[in-house]
């Protein structure tokens, strides 16, 4: 898989789906300076939908996240909050959860073990 089919060359990939009224953006692989822009594009498209956005970022398969990736998540969360929407991170690995804890973002983001219920 490479840049031509929507996935960065380093193996990171992103998918977008709808689930129970939520836009679910799934991140696989490394979220870093090389891949953060692609995630930003997906999140911007999800935020641009009609009504208050309801966005889940599923990080079950995210293996690494640097400051560039965190910055994309923070900006998306703030934009969604300003629109009275909801932003949720689901299923962070221990490694990713540790990054969120060390940076203080564990207290900022709504982090869940399962996809949110409809409503």
From TrEMBL:
GO terms for MF: anti-sigma factor antagonist activity
SUPFAM superfamilies documented for this protein: SpoIIaa-like
Source organism (scientific name): Actinomadura physcomitrii
PANTHER family listed in its UniProt record: ANTI-SIGMA FACTOR ANTAGONIST TM_1081-RELATED, ANTI-SIGMA FACTOR ANTAGONIST TM_1081-RELATED-RELATED
CDD domains, alphabetized: STAS_anti-anti-sigma_factors (cd07043)
InterPro entries in alphabetical order: Anti-sigma_ant, STAS_dom, STAS_dom_sf
Family assignment from sequence similarity: Belongs to the anti-sigma-factor antagonist family.
Protein known as: Anti-sigma factor antagonist
Pfam families referenced in this protein's UniProt entry, alphabetically: STAS
The STAS domain, residue ranges: 12-119
PROSITE patterns for the chain: STAS (PS50801)
